[in-house]
Amino acid sequence: MILIKLLLAHLIGDFFLQPQKWVKEKEEKKLKSPKLYVHVLIHIAITALLLWNIKLWPIILIIGVSHFIIDALKLLVQKKKTKRLFFFIDQLLHVLVIVVCYFIFSKQVSITQISFSENTLILITCFLFLTIPVSIIMKTIFLKWNISELTKNNQSLKDAGKYIGILERILVFIFIIADHWEAVGFLITAKSVFRFGDLKESKTRQLTEYILIGTLISFGIAIITGIIFTTITS
Q1: Residue 67: CB partners within 8 Å, gap ≥ 6?
Q2: How far apart (Å, rounded) are the C-alpha atoms in residues 126 and 76?
Q3: Average confidence score pLDDT of the chain
Q4: CA-CA distance, 26 to 47, in Å (whole number)?
């Protein structure tokens, strides 16, 4: 239970309560940016709220201090070319700290039971992960290529691709935990039909590859998340 709460707090603090303009300001001003300190305080507050146990204050302190150190080092060290790499290193270190805290403190304290069951918290965490966090992860992956150049003549609604991706991942996740794999196949087929026009009209191989990579990564993450959820909760 405690591990799920810590991961949930991280997802909310790092992806939902950190606007993109905060990220840009931190990259520009680095340690002089007030948003860096506000961001860390938000993490501390969310972690404390979800744990809601005075005995767990060392975890809250460790996560807060380590989050500041990791984010500060990333801001000081990363360059434009290494931004994608340091994003994943940053997230890996945050998760590593959470896991270490869990193993250190989980056997030393008794967690106060709340109305949410462990499976419910896992479900909420999975749903949240498949929305904004995965969108940011995919965007970071595609920093390697100049996607805006490939899609500059492609007229579409603002952020339509992001929301379509979120909806398809949630649907895939629901189908998997409901044990309806045939529905996943239907969804993939339906998207392929809708995307056929884009692929047919595309004059560049790069755009075709971009569409295929994005689709495979999006579906792949949703499928893996669904399998992990069913494995943990079964």
Answers
A1: 40, 43, 94, 97
A2: 31
A3: 86
A4: 22
Supply the pLDDT for residue 195: 64
Alpha-carbon span 133 to 225, nearest angstrom: 13
Let me know the angle formed at the C-alpha of 90 by 85 and 92, rounded to the nearest 5 degrees.
Answer: 95
SS3 144: helix
**CB atoms < 10 A from the CB of 209, how many?**
13
CA distance 143 to 80: 10
Q: Where are the alpha helices (DSSP H) in 78-154?
A: 83-105, 118-129, 132-141, 147-150
- Give pLDDT, residue 113: 43
* 218: exposed, middle or buried (Cβ count in 10 Å: 0-12, 13-18, 19+): buried
Question: Sign of torsion, CA 170 173 179 185?
Answer: positive
Separation between Cα atoms, residue 144 and residue 217, nearest integer Å: 15
DSSP string for residues in 165-231: HHHHHHHHHHHHHTT-HHHHHHHHHHHHHHHHHHHHH---HHHHHHHHHHHHHHHHHHHHHHHHHHH
Per-residue model confidence (pLDDT) at position 53: 84
pLDDT in tens, 171-208: 999 999 999 999 998 888 887 777 666 555 555 667 77
Q: What is the pLDDT of residues 99-158, one digit of tens each?
A: 999 988 876 554 444 445 788 889 999 999 999 999 999 989 888 877 666 666 666 666
